[in-house]
């Protein structure tokens, strides 16, 4: 099972906070919606459920509960390779 790197970003201008895996699409969306956001935390996770719980842990929100009927997605080596390729060329900042 592969791990992905996730980041938590906050925007002091509007008080928003987001958690997402590092990706070109995620960076593009964040820059368009919250151009002044700053990264406040990074972590790795092997699945989306593990990432949601890590986000909850960092915020001190307690136990995350999966929506009824949702299925956990474990990340593949292909997901990790794609992320590493992006990180290698990711613009700083």
Description:
This protein is α+β, with helices and mostly antiparallel strands. The chain has one domain (4-89). 38% of the residues lie in helices and 24% in strands. It contains three helices and three strands. The N and C termini lie far apart (29 Å).
SSE layout and pairing:
Elements: E1 4-11, E2 16-21, H1 24-33, E3 38-45, H2 48-59, H3 77-89
Number of helices: 3
Overall strand count: 3
How does the major sheet shape up? 3 strands, antiparallel
Summed up, the domain count is 1
Spatial shape: globular
- How far apart are the first and last residues' alpha carbons, in Å? 29 Å
- Based on secondary structure, the structural category is alpha+beta
Low-confidence stretches: none
Major β-sheet strand ordering: 2-1-3
Helix content: 25-40%
Helices and strands, in order, run as: EEHEHH
Our estimate of the beta-strand percent is 15-25%
Short key terms for the protein model shown above:
single chain; 93 residues; three-stranded antiparallel beta sheet; 3 strands
Task: Summarize it.
The chain is α+β, with helices and mostly antiparallel strands and 93 residues long. It contains 3 helices and 3 strands; from the N terminus they run E-E-H-E-H-H. Strands 2-1-3 form a 3-stranded antiparallel β-sheet, with helices on both faces.
């Amino acid at each position: 099972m592969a791990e992905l790197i996730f980041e938590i970003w906050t925007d002091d201008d509007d008080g928003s906070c987001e958690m997402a895996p590092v990706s070109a699409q995620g960076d593009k969306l964040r820059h368009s919606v919250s151009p002044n956001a700053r990264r406040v935390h990074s972590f790795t996770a092997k699945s989306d459920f593990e990432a949601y719980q890590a986000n909850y842990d960092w915020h001190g929100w307690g136990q995350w509960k999966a929506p009824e009927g949702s299925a956990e997605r474990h990340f593949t080596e292909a997901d990790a390779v794609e992320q590493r390729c992006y990180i290698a060329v990711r613009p700083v900042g």
